[in-house]
């Protein structure tokens, strides 16, 4: 079965910088609305609808010194259906006083007799039973007392600490955590994180997004602290005559809101002084305040201005102001959670998240509109909420400063990740939470597609229509698509018989994406366009793939009219297999379908059109007439289609010839992944050496040019591109890189205390372990063996990964395996051994050496792993599952026959390996001759600077 780049790149990620282009995707997937947490709630049993809440009156007393809290709550509700019970959410960690509990009938203030109170086993529910049935239409109030613990983990109410310089030590801002600072004072805070269903950990409630009701809230605080809440402070009261250290803050009544948007922060953080005119601040609605520790304030001095700018852009987009009196934005020190706490009117960030850019800020602001003000009715629509927020926040950042923080990577990295995931035989490996995230990413790309195809103005007016009359209410995903449909019909951007629901559902209800193929009839100046399921992994045996059809917009740019600024849909493939295009240019002119990745799908062409494109891109004067995104798309599509078996590798390699002249980092973005992927696939074949020479020829001029032109204050993308090119060249044996790495490594070897710390930058370790001497590698091994307990464990893990994953010489790997497996060295845990097996699966030198080690030491290994089934299974998987040639198949098959019946729990693993290798062997037999022929021709006409490389 074919392996996709993201799975293979796990090894590469461990050994070098995150591959260029994946940085942004990895970063953005951690944003608010945690779909992995919300996903299990989709199937959660909803509360009975017999009673509907109408308001909360809440008193909370956090006891910072005891890490506990206490409180009481009055919940008013209307009886909608006849019932003799009230069911509320209350987490098992929350202690509710079941004896001191009352239910009042509001119209006559009478007390309702309670039969019993139950906590439901294994469910976070509190049920109050009555002797008599409640009266429909009458309001009731439940009065409860409770207490619970304040945790350090970010669920419900949590506490934290931070240090900063005392005033006596001076107030000069450092901009960093003040660890080790003389006279550092410890400060405490208490805050909340209620998404998606943690309000029930703090007070009994109707903890579902659809219940949006107002809160009256009072919270006790130390006099040394202040409280930020969803709404403004109304007044402060004394707690008691005997308590001089605490007071009660009473806040203005909140608007109707879901429990998950409730939030507060008790701290002594300080407001960051505004950089704008006071009169401007007074006019600004909502009033924006930024909070941070004193030592960090200079780092967030411009945040208020950035929030204002993003807020204004979003208000222009939505056409309606955010109905908040104030918006507090907090840089919280020691906040470990990866997602901000985006409460209504109060957004809490970890400090590093506020340092630069507009995307983070814009996304949290979008959630104030869509999430807090207007809320998904149930968790099944959370991905639509997140997709809209992702699209609009990126759009806002791009409109403000061109999206500098993306370095041009949006939306390509999201796109590439779903291309790889949805083209697998089994997307997500049946991991449901991952499915929610990728479905959200795909929905975001579909929104981008609609923004293009319906037109930006129609799309914006449609979203405005969607939020109208939904203030403080909830929505379903279909409400979004219906509003867009109405506006598209009104603006005549979509025919009356079609709906946006039809378009969207064809995309987001399938864990798949389509591939479009364009075959031109050059004499007739026409083309036949077909669609089918896109699959990279083999075999292409997905059930019912012939029935899968999408609504696909066909956008075409022709060589005789290279106008990428005025793109309109020529026609829609309305879930049909085939359409015709007419009036195309002559046979000497190319066409491009789906330019700028307007839709999330790859496009294949007939060979002639591909070659016309390849020729055009090689000419300096014409290459830049095709925009960067489209150049990247053409390259990315060609290689992936070839890997999938839909395009000749000769044609795909032709599409890389223009890279000799290309210097844009976005076009290079997919190249590193594709080089890595193809290189690993052909690793065991004789073609690999020629492929490596091709890579050297491709990357050496790029890298050396970037080195020559290096400047102190250059753009970040240049540094990233240079670093990636260097890493790949290092792996290919580039002498200047290896020599530089060995010089750095020697400083460590000459150190009088080598186990005290690692003075070598990570980028140097892998080249030394791969190309260096036995002595250098052995030195690294001893550092792992003698690693002190006091040092950071991740440093040891990195060393272990590189010791196994980098070397190409079998003797180094054999030495490691002998120590860890046969000698059963006590310095290595079972987790270490599993990690080594995983690292060895990254290249043929690793897994073939592991295979031979297994074959030659079968009896000893079986004895060692007799009671360690997990290790045995991991070893069989890594040692047998990655071969791609007939030679590899024969080796694994021989081992299987020789030890049939002895594999135990790994029997099914080796059987699966044999099936996969057979499939990969077919791929190799079909493609290696084509690749070799093209490489021979290329290398014959291009000088290869072999004198610059080892090996």
Automatic annotation (TrEMBL):
InterPro entries assigned: Aminopeptidase_N-like_N, Aminopeptidase_N-like_N_sf, ERAP1-like_C_dom, M1_APN-typ, Peptidase_M1, Peptidase_M1_aminopeptidases, Peptidase_M1_dom, Peptidase_M4/M1_CTD_sf
Pfam families: ERAP1_C, Peptidase_M1, Peptidase_M1_N
Cofactor note: Binds 1 zinc ion per subunit.
Peptidase M1 membrane alanine aminopeptidase domain span: 310-507
ERAP1-like C-terminal domain sequence ranges: 590-918
Topological category with respect to the lipid bilayer: Lipid-anchor; GPI-anchor
Signal sequence, start to end: 1-23
Residue span, Aminopeptidase N-like N-terminal domain: 52-260
A GO term from the CC aspect: extracellular space
Primary residence: membrane
Cell wall biogenesis/degradation recorded as keyword: no
Residue positions of the active site: 364 (proton acceptor)
Identification of the protein by name: Aminopeptidase
Native source species: Anopheles minimus
